[in-house]
Design a protein that fits this description.
Radius of gyration: 18 Å
Helix content: 40-55%
Distance between the termini: 22 Å
Strand order of the largest sheet: 1-2-3-4-5-6-7-8
CATH architecture: Alpha-Beta Barrel
Structural class: alpha/beta
CATH class: Alpha Beta
Number of domains: 1
Number of helices: 11
Bound molecules: 1,3-dihydroxyacetonephosphate
Largest sheet: 8 strands, parallel, barrel
């Protein structure tokens, strides 16, 4: 069924849990994620990368995810991730996205606020008042679609363009943007971590003290499970995964392709292995984040 992202996250936090969000570049992965969530009886978020959404096929994928979400037995939200291009945002929402990360995190503070407000106003004008907006304060290192290894910035909580989220800006940012969720930069990175992740839980706690709005932790791949499990206690109600899901799928395809070629070019069987890999990861993550 269609889940409203802010409500899913608030109700998870009320029971000491967080909702995982998984990047889906394709329908096979999305089927696996939703299947795992149905198996667990828990809601889930399907993320669409902006590079996917900015193509005609990407918009068709969003429409397909919309159908998948609406017919699932558990709440599912379809979110356009890390978007700043108004055209892509409006097209994605028309195609079926019900939430957007309005990402002005690479901009100076005031420009970030202006972008989020502009996106909200454009959605409202289009009649999409129900679309949930997440905004991001502080900058994450790394690439959203490719994992090369990045260092999280553990210092400089005073800067506004990149680096750690500045707790002193949080209340003002949330109030002026009207963001319904807030993505934070606390040493988390997109892709692989160079060395051990150094998540600044102290900064996260300071940020959480400044706002009632649920927090979002991006770049969760590579953060140890015991650390992720404590995220809901710091008002982190949504946790984003991409790289680990890709790693598992690609390893499975590497290991299984030859045998499936030999088995009469058995693509159906190979897709079942793909589904199995993604469903196992999604299922374990759903369990980890649920109280
Ligand atoms: P990872 O690729 O590091 O898991 O990050 C995913 C993410 O934050 C998507 O928004």
């Amino acid at each position: 069924m269609r889940g409203k992202l802010d409500q899913m996250v608030s109700s998870a936090l009320n029971s000491g849990s967080a909702v995982p969000a998984f990047t889906c570049y394709d329908f096979t992965t999305a089927l696996a994620v939703v299947g795992a969530a149905e198996e667990a009886g828990l809601g889930v978020i399907l993320l669409v990368a902006p590079k996917t959404a900015s193509t005609p096929n990407g918009l068709r994928l969003i429409a397909a995810l919309r159908g998948l979400a609406d017919h699932a037995s558990i709440p599912v939200s379809v979110q356009l991730d890390h978007a700043s291009d108004l055209k892509v945002i409006l097209e994605s929402v028309t195609a079926g996205a019900d939430a957007v990360l309005a990402d002005g995190s690479s901009l100076p503070y005031e420009d970030n606020i202006a972008l989020v407000r502009e996106i909200r106003a454009a959605l409202d004008t289009q009649g999409a008042t129900d679309v949930v907006i997440e905004a991001e304060l502080g900058g994450l290192a790394g690439d959203e679609d490719k994992a090369f290894g990045a260092e999280g910035s553990a210092h400089d909580a005073g800067t506004s363009v990149a680096g750690l989220t500045n707790p002193a800006q949080v209340a003002d940012f949330v109030e002026r943007t009207g963001a319904q969720l807030l993505a934070v930069a606390v040493g988390n990175v997109h892709g692989k971590y160079k060395g051990e992740p150094n998540i600044r839980w102290d900064v996260l706690q300071e940020v959480a003290a400044q706002t009632e709005v649920p927090l979002v932790l991006h770049g969760a791949s590579g953060i140890p499970a015991d650390q992720l499990a404590k995220a809901p206690s710091m008002n982190v109600g949504k946790v984003n995964f991409n790289t680990e899901l890709r790693t598992g799928i690609l390893s499975t395809l590497e290991a299984e392709t030859a045998a499936h070629r030999a088995d009469g070019e058995n693509l159906q069987g190979l897709l079942a292995r793909w589904n199995g890999s993604a469903a196992t990861f999604a299922g374990a993550t759903l369990e980890l984040l649920s109280a």
